[in-house]
């Protein structure tokens, strides 16, 4: 959808199948997912159950319109109607603007915290998508020399701040561990109504809620 960012999918045309979830970046209401396959008839041959009470073979119209037999859940194919309605309302340009804005906000967040005291990026380099992964190190553990103890205490920081966010009702950001990396915040920006001021508030709120840990 985004002319500015579509290069990130270069090579996707070589895939035999692609999963596309409009209910994520495009904000289509759940559930709305599409599985695109190169081989014509593959979904039908894999999933069709030939339910005679639904898909009679002697109907008076073209049987290719009976698309329900392509999926295990025969009613799922109507989910695409939600995407069609939004596409009609927003247009391709509208979706492009929405996606570009979310990626711009993600880059803004990254640029604000990458060199800010108390923050540390989980991965090197600018994020390629809207997931911005970072640690917040409260003053109490920021300069600890014992690396194992520091790691142990840092693991508990994100869950406590997340709990306080929910108690105050101000904002909410997910967190997770990854391999040998202790819990870190994983900010996923997908709300087109978000603003640069919201990002500034998020940073200040994390610091406010976590300064005593």
From TrEMBL:
<protein>
    <recommendedName>
        <fullName>Glutamate decarboxylase 2</fullName>
        <ecNumber>4.1.1.15</ecNumber>
    </recommendedName>
</protein>
<keyword id="KW-0449">Lipoprotein</keyword>
<comment type="similarity">
    <text>Belongs to the group II decarboxylase family.</text>
</comment>
<dbReference type="Pfam" id="PF00282">
    <property type="entry name" value="Pyridoxal_deC"/>
</dbReference>
<keyword id="KW-0663">Pyridoxal phosphate</keyword>
<keyword id="KW-0456">Lyase</keyword>
<dbReference type="InterPro" id="IPR021115">
    <property type="entry name" value="Pyridoxal-P_BS"/>
</dbReference>
<comment type="function">
    <text>Catalyzes the production of GABA.</text>
</comment>
<keyword id="KW-0472">Membrane</keyword>
<keyword id="KW-0966">Cell projection</keyword>
<keyword id="KW-1003">Cell membrane</keyword>
<keyword id="KW-0968">Cytoplasmic vesicle</keyword>
<keyword id="KW-0597">Phosphoprotein</keyword>
<dbReference type="InterPro" id="IPR015424">
    <property type="entry name" value="PyrdxlP-dep_Trfase"/>
</dbReference>
<keyword id="KW-0770">Synapse</keyword>
<dbReference type="InterPro" id="IPR002129">
    <property type="entry name" value="PyrdxlP-dep_de-COase"/>
</dbReference>
<keyword id="KW-0963">Cytoplasm</keyword>
<dbReference type="InterPro" id="IPR015421">
    <property type="entry name" value="PyrdxlP-dep_Trfase_major"/>
</dbReference>
<keyword id="KW-0210">Decarboxylase</keyword>
<keyword id="KW-0564">Palmitate</keyword>
<comment type="subunit">
    <text>Homodimer.</text>
</comment>
<keyword id="KW-0333">Golgi apparatus</keyword>
<keyword id="KW-0530">Neurotransmitter biosynthesis</keyword>
């Amino acid at each position: 959808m985004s002319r500015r960012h579509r290069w990130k999918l270069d090579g996707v045309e070589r895939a035999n199948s692609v999963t596309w979830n409009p209910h994520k970046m495009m904000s289509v209401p759940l559930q709305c997912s599409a599985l695109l396959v190169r081989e014509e008839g593959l979904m039908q041959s894999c999933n069709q159950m030939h339910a005679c009470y639904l898909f009679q073979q002697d109907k008076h119209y073209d049987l290719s319109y009976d698309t329900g037999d392509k999926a295990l859940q025969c009613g799922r194919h109507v989910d695409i109607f939600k995407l069609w309605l939004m596409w009609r309302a927003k247009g391709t340009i509208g979706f492009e603007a929405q996606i570009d804005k979310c990626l711009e906000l993600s880059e803004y967040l990254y640029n604000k915290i990458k060199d800010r005291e108390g923050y540390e990026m989980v991965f090197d380099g600018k994020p390629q998508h809207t997931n911005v992964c970072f640690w917040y190190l409260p003053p109490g553990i920021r300069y600890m020399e014992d690396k194992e103890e520091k790691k142990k205490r840092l693991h508990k920081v994100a869950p406590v701040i997340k709990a306080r966010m929910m108690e105050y009702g101000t904002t909410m950001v997910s967190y997770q561990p990854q391999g040998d990396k202790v819990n870190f915040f994983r900010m996923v920006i997908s709300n087109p109504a978000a603003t640069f001021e919201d990002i500034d508030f998020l940073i200040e709120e994390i610091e406010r809620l976590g300064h005593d840990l």
